[in-house]
Design a protein that fits this description.
This protein is mainly α and about 180 residues long. Helix content is about 60%, strand content about 0%. The protein contains 6 helices and no strands. The longest helix has about 35 residues. The N and C termini lie far apart (about 95 Å).
Length: about 180
């Protein structure tokens, strides 16, 4: 009789954007709280005792640190919960798929999953979400290493050419001055 659940609340796109804006503001407060916690670990005078010109006591630093970290973790928890709600809303709207393992076209065609469909480490772990940070971090970035290898090869070639020129020059002209290389 009284056990009826209220109808689920539906949010408009404008409501979702307002919620994301509130989360964004809380992220700024989160960073501020982290800064206050770090400031409490320094010898700087805490903000609450800014009227006293002398060095702050250890107790005031502890108090400021505890307050800042409490606010930090409360905000972090709140942001986490609200972002999860936004993520669930995106999944419900079919904008973003849930994190369930499915075979992608690349693994089905024998691409990233290996020569046979469904084999290899990628297929075993399931497809990667393009928004997954661990997937992005696991990608190889060899551009810098390749460029460094090219530069070292060019430097070796340059030094070899200089050595060859100095050997050729000393054999053909015994009285000439040798070229100095910095």
């Amino acid at each position: 009789m009284a056990d009826e659940l209220p109808p689920p609340q539906t949010f408009t796109s404008a409501d979702r954007i307002r919620q994301l804006n509130d989360i964004d503001k809380d992220v700024a407060q989160l960073i501020n709280s982290a800064g206050l916690a770090i400031q409490a670990l320094t010898n700087a005078t805490p903000d609450s005792d800014s009227s006293s010109p002398g060095p702050a006591s250890l107790e005031s630093h502890k108090t400021q640190f505890k307050e800042a970290t409490s606010k930090y973790f409360a905000l972090l928890s709140s942001i986490d919960v609200r972002l999860r709600r936004q993520l669930y809303a995106l999944e419900e709207a079919s904008v973003l798929g849930p994190d369930t393992p499915q075979r992608t076209d690349a693994t089905a065609a024998g691409g990233a999953g290996g020569p046979n469909p469904g084999t290899g480490p990628v297929a075993a772990a399931g497809p990667s979400n393009p928004l997954d940070v661990s997937w992005l971090n696991s990608r190889k970035d060899t551009v810098g290493k390749d460029k460094e290898a090219e530069l070292w090869a060019a430097a070796r070639e340059f030094v070899a050419d200089l050595d060859q020129k100095s050997v050729d020059g000393s054999q053909s002209n015994g009285d000439s001055e040798k070229m100095q290389v910095d």
